[in-house]
Amino acid sequence: YFIPNACVFSNAGISRNRTESHDVRFSFDNGGMFRASVGYLYSKDRDLTQNAFATAPPLTAVPTAPLNPAIASNYLLYVVLGQTVTENEISSPFAEVSVSLMDGKLRIGAEGRYTEEKRYQQALASGGAGGVVAVTGLAFNATYNSFTPRLTVDYNLAPDHLVYASAAKGVKSGGFNTTAFLPENRAFDEDTNWTYELGTKNTFGNFRFNANVFYTDWTDQQVVV
Fold first, then answer.
1. Which residues 6+ apart lie within 8 Å of 36 measured at CB?
2. What are the backbone angles phi and psi of residue 175, rounded to the nearest 5°?
3. Can you tell me the distance from the alpha carbon of 164 to that of 162, in angstroms, rounded to the nearest whole number?
4. Contacts of 212 (CB under 8 A, 6+ apart)
5. Model pLDDT, residue 54
6. Intervals of the chain under pLDDT 70
7. Which residues pair with 51 in a beta bridge?
């Protein structure tokens, strides 16, 4: 763009974010063979992002401070090109239990978490400088539910020699294709993986040796194209 006697800017997104998170947990461990805990996590966040086109007079000196892109009066012309609001709400109960066997040499553990995530996204009405630009986008809603277990086994071969193994499921939440034309393509599913680990930890006097190996089986991987 060219505007005589003015500098032209296309500023980056201005974001206003509000987040809250709450976690409660109850644990049991009396030094015996059983340990357990149970809890609940709740979190919610809201993000409002704005992009604007703005022009300002040419600089006559080195600025003493940056222009605040959130204050329209700093500019000759200020047009809001787009505003997007995103909201996420997560509810997640979880529990874990472990048992110690063979005089404490062997410990077997199991964990599990259930997660419900509600996602919302919409392009809000925008338009600065008398409504030069005015666009209102579609509202996107989706709810994702997942269960993620984890199993662990630790075995002490000797006081300074440990072998361990684990298997765990991971989940990455789905999201939105905001430019998709067909409604069935506007939300995409979660991707999941199972990760397996086998390792050992050893101490030989002043020498320490640790090693492990991972294998991950990834399903429905999300790829940006």
1. 27, 28, 29, 95, 96, 97, 98
2. -165, -155
3. 7
4. 197, 198, 199, 200
5. 77
6. 1-3, 5-6, 8-13, 69-70, 125-136
7. 82
Three-state DSSP class for residue 75? coil
Q: Decide: 224 and 188 in contact? Cβ < 8 Å.
A: no
The reported pTM is: 0.76
d(CA 100, CA 161): 17
pLDDT of residue 167: 98
Please state whether beta strands 139-158 and 106-124 pair in parallel, antiparallel, or not at all (unpaired): antiparallel
> What is the pLDDT, as a whole number, of residue 129?
46
Write the single-letter amino acid at 162. Answer: L
Give every CB contact of residue 167 below 8 A, 6+ residues apart in sequence: 150, 151, 194, 195, 196, 197
- 3-state secondary structure (DSSP) of residue 16: strand
d(CA 79, CA 130): 9
Distance in angstroms (rounded) separating the CA atoms of residues 225 and 208: 45
Torsions phi, psi of 185, nearest 5? -100, 0
> What pLDDT was estimated at residue 132?
47
Cα–Cα dist 84/79, whole Å: 15
DSSP code of residue 19: E
